[in-house]
Automatic annotation (TrEMBL):
Keyword annotations: ATP-binding, Cell membrane, Membrane, Nucleotide-binding, Translocase, Transport
Domain ABC transporter: 2-243
Originating species: Gandjariella thermophila
Family named by the database record: Belongs to the ABC transporter superfamily.
Gene Ontology annotations for the cellular component aspect, listed alphabetically: ATP-binding cassette (ABC) transporter complex
Annotated signal sequence range: none
Location in the cell: Cell membrane
Recorded GO MF terms: ATP binding; ATP hydrolysis activity; ATPase-coupled transmembrane transporter activity
InterPro entries given in the database record: AAA+_ATPase, ABC_transporter-like_ATP-bd, ABC_transporter-like_CS, ABC_transpr_CbiO/EcfA_su, ECF_ABC_transporter_ATP-bd, P-loop_NTPase
Pfam family, one: ABC_tran
Protein name (database record): ABC transporter ATP-binding protein
Length: 286
């Protein structure tokens, strides 16, 4: 579904390439998490998948990005946005600036595609309900909190029903409740078969839902594999990526001899609980 074929990219003003010789494939329906320190190239990667690179941002590319069988560089952006949705890291940049209410904002992309009015209303209502933001429908997109804007930005992409969804830190401005709404929506889309690339710092959440995690570092793939392996890798800390709290707790326990050397460190709550149960012989503390 998504293929990067020795893909490199340098921004017009960049002195060094932001992405270097990426070779990877994300099969249809996979939920691929992306993590890495600040400046690693996560947002650049997201923009390259959605065609903003090279179409909107210019710069120099080498190699290819292929999404849904189409080479991104050879496909006009208006054609790409039908299939590939990108939720930007800064939701403010996603607001059209030409609509007065959230409802109109959500309908904007569909209007541009010429979707009939009735269908438009149906889709917008469905997304408002799915993200539990019905209460924002008549508000101005500019009079929302950062978190509310983030939900609206996600909504404006979801109404397009993309087969590939790229989310760049979609919960960075959200509290735990708002983050939960986003993760619920992502989980539902994953179940519905949408191919998802999710850049996310909340590794505890990512570990629960991702099929696979990529670690980017200096524009290269440093690690690629199942979340349980990648997120427990001890090198993450050296690279400036804090692991999950479950891994941290088990690592401390191991230092004190309370977690066996030969038992993998957990990345989810369930794995942590199972591990601590096993080492305490199932004895619950009072
Ligand atoms: N518009 C731009 N022009 C020039 N260089 C840029 C531009 N955007 C990003 N860069 C550079 O490209 C590299 C990768 O940046 P990118 O924004 O992709 O990192 P990131 O992993 O998303 O970081 P963060 O976690 O802070 O969002 C950095 O060195 C950054 O300074
Ligand atoms: Mg970024």
């Amino acid at each position: 579904m998504i293929e990067l074929d020795d893909f490199s990219y340098a921004y017009p003003t960049g002195s060094r390439p932001a992405l270097r010789s990426l070779r990877l494939a994300v099969p249809a329906g996979q939920l691929c998490g992306v993590v890495g320190p600040s400046g690693a190239g996560k947002s650049t990667f997201a923009h390259a998948l959605a065609g903003f690179i090279p179409h909107a941002l210019g710069g120099e590319t080498a190699g290819r990005v292929v999404v849904g069988g189409r080479t991104v560089a050879d496909t006009p952006l208006p054609d790409l946005v039908r299939d590939v949705g990108l939720v930007l890291q800064n939701p403010f940049n996603q607001i059209s600036g030409v609509k007065f209410t959230v409802r109109e904002e959500l309908a904007f992309g569909l209007e541009n595609l010429g979707v009939p009015q009735e269908e438009m209303v149906r889709r917008v209502d469905a997304v408002l309900a799915e993200l539990r933001i019905e209460g924002l429908a008549d508000r101005s997109p500019y009079q929302l909190s950062g978190g509310q804007q983030q939900l609206v930005a996600l909504g404006s992409v979801l109404v397009m029903r993309p087969s590939v969804l790229v989310l760049d830190e979609p919960t960075s401005q959200l509290d735990p409740v708002g983050s939960g709404q986003v993760f619920d929506a992502v989980r539902a889309l994953h179940r519905a078969g949408v191919t998802i690339v999710l850049v996310e710092h909340k590794l505890e959440r990512l570990a629960e839902i991702a099929d696979r995690v990529l670690v980017l570092r200096h524009g290269e793939v440093a690690l690629d594999g199942p979340p349980a392996t990648v997120l427990a890798d001890p090198r993450l800390a050296d690279w400036g990526v804090a692991g999950t709290r479950y891994t941290a707790a088990a690592r401390l326990a191991r230092e004190r001899g309370l977690w066996p050397e030969d038992r993998d460190l957990p990345v989810t709550l369930d794995a942590a609980v199972a591990g601590f149960r096993a080492v305490t012989g199932g004895v619950e503390s009072r």
